[in-house]
Amino acid sequence: MADPIKVLLVDDHQVVRRGLRTFLEVQEDIAVVGEAADGAEGVARAEELRPDVVLMDVKMPGMDGIDALRRLRELGNPVRVLIVTSFTEKRTVVPALRAGAAGYVYKDVDPDALAGAIRSVHAGHILLQPEVAGALLSQEEGNSGQGRGGSLTEREREVLGLIADGRSNREIARALVLSEKTVKTHVSNILMKLDLADRTQAALWAVRHGVSG
Fold first, then answer.
1. pTM above 0.85, yes or no
2. Which of 11, 12, 94, 152 has the most C-beta neighbours closer than 10 Å?
3. Least confident among 128-132, 142-146, 169-173, 186-190
């Protein structure tokens, strides 16, 4: 059996953390490795524990979830961050995704859907709902990567299209009959050529410019 997905819970409400832990601990492929009550503690715990996925609340005292996410990226921590937010905080999701979050779930998410979301982002997928993707596209219009698509090779455009479809590196490698190492190299080249920070921005660039898998 593969190693379980290591999850860190970051939320300032102990009741929320307890509820998340209680549910996730019954999942055979998910292990809660720690908790934090604010963004600063979350960053420190993520550096210490090196989880695979962080469930991060947005609004917390001191360092909030978005600033914590930015700090993790500054530190080069590769953890996948899944933002946990309330339905009324939709406007906070766009800055979080632009800061490098792998996606988001609402606090009233169905437990099974939450487990599925954790597995999905761990596999390299990006969780975007249509209305948020549209907001991101409008905000990113005219930003990084404009006019640089011609510098991509044919193979890089194929990889980019599959990123836009939400495929993980493993799935892209299987689809294109390549090694995962080669796919990682292509992804790095795409981000460099388009001057983009992460896969989320690459997926949005692909959607805006009509690149599909």
1. no
2. 11
3. 142-146
